[in-house]
Amino acid sequence: xxxxxxxxxxxxxxxxxxxxxxxxxxxxxxxxxxxxxxxxxxxxxxxxxxxxxxxxxxxxxxxxxxxxxxxxxxxxxxxxxxxxxxxxxxxxxxxxxxxxxxxxxxxxxxxxxxxxxxxxxxxxxxxxxxxxxxxxxxxxxxxxxxxxxxxxxxxxxxxxxxxxxxxxxxxxxxxxxxxxxxxxxxxxxxxxxxxxxxxxxxxxxxxxxxxxxxxxxxxxxxxxxxxxxxxxxxxxxxxxxxxxxxxxxxxxxxxxxxxxxxxxxxxxxxxxxxxxxxxxxxxxxxxxxxxxxxxxxxxxxxxxxxxxxxxxxxxxxxxxxxxxxxxxxxxxxxxxxxxxxxxxxxxxxxxxxxxxxxxxxxxxxxxxxxxxxxxxxxxxxxxxxxxxxxxxxxxxxxxxxxxxxxxxxxxxxxxxxxxxxxxxxxxxxxxxxxxxxxxxxxxxxxxxxxxxxxxxxxxxxxxxxxxxxxxxxxxxxxxxxxxxxxxxxxxxxxxxxxxxxxxxxxxxxxxxxxxxxxxxxxxxxxxxxxxxxxxxxxxxxxxxxxxxxxxxxxxxxxxxxxxxxxxxxxxxxxxxxxxxxxxxxxxxxxxxxxxxxxxxxxxxxxxxxxxxxxxxxxxxxxxxxxxxxxxxxxxxxxxxxxxxxxxxxxxxxx
Length: 654
Hints:
The protein is mainly α. It has 24 helices and twelve strands.
């Protein structure tokens, strides 16, 4: 892979120009013709396009959507973690704190330059894709069918790149063909086009690709990182879901947002038929996907039903191009993410100490409270769950929770009788956390003891800005694997683990949301896909949960508005910490309501339950700098200098 990426980077260095719309200089045409004479060099080009795209998006650090919302909380040292050139390794935190800027934008995928000094912008990748599409037919030692497949794979990745640009910038410049350097400047300075045209172009490219793409079952194993028919169909449904969502469908924020010639770039009139189009596309994708994909549901070697369900949830996120749930997956390009999530023990704790771990990146209190009760209901909607006393201590006596919650031991009420996804994804004080199965030590299923001075607890007397510290008293299990011993975790990583770009659970949730927004009243087209996700999560189906005696609001599942809240919470839970909430809050147009809230946590300097849990009066404010300005922050800024060079209009507010 490194060899192939090097080849493409070299080619792009030869041909890239400062303006993202420029085509290859004429003097290099012979080089391109040579590259597209033989299958091997053409393959290098194709692999490189995918490799560079994944390097930008399969990195939890570079991809701001992972930490740029309100799912994570961390210490100041990690927020300011940067290299010698001042580039932040996790710039999403700067965005969540309202520090985005047009002079040198974070998440600048429009063009190279800016504070992140990106070499490979998405428009460079589009240009490379166009070169491939225009030249692949010239390769002499390939079958026509293989040429069609490869061209389809590039059309699909081009559609994917367009999609990533649109959800960042809204209306974009479309580049159906590269523009020669000898063209007039007026032709090079292409305008941004209406956002509906952008989405329609994405769908058209995918439709052109779908007919020639193999399914995940029929394709050769070496095509696993590339778009399959199922992946293209799912991306089509996802793009149409975005097109139907409030940010892009009749958004009054952008009534005055016009192109450089005065043409409108957004429609201010909502079109409900867009939801139907998305729903039908999701139905088509589901029909195709269910021939070869399924939700991960294979854990059967643990000591209880709850532990097996937790195993399914855990391994729904693990793959080496082998998980039947993953529809599109790319190799991690930030394998070190686990270092900041797993706990840092004292060096004297020889059984578990690992010097590369920092333990400073935590799930937020908002996400801790997001997960359902054991009955599949929000914690404030379950009659049997003591919401008003959730910050008091209690005990668990039910053996169903053995090895998950210590029995007959004081534990915070907030951590009791929660759904399996909570226990699979969140490590909380006084709960069990399995950290390896093949260690020489018997007690690998540790109890998280988080008070100051305890095994997981703070090693400092104060919370400082220059130390790696867990500042809220929770740890993230998701994205790590319980079978790997913590003191040798780095040695267990195979370096070929993949990150889910699209997984089947997301497609089911797209299907449920789209049908709910289109139908006047929800029916089985809404409930059925939602229930598939809930079944694997180990909770009752949605109607059973809400119509049961446990529910405070049994009529909620009967209305579009009620189901909208339910579906959105299901999305927030199932896809938590996967980079989805960042985009969903924006497309739902509620980011300004959620991303200006203070972040809460426990007093990590407390040495007793009473001290740690703030005298049982509730969590304390641990971060108050979150800032989201509407409508400005709903779209990324284009770098100010690039606006002057290319002549495109800037996004509103920037």
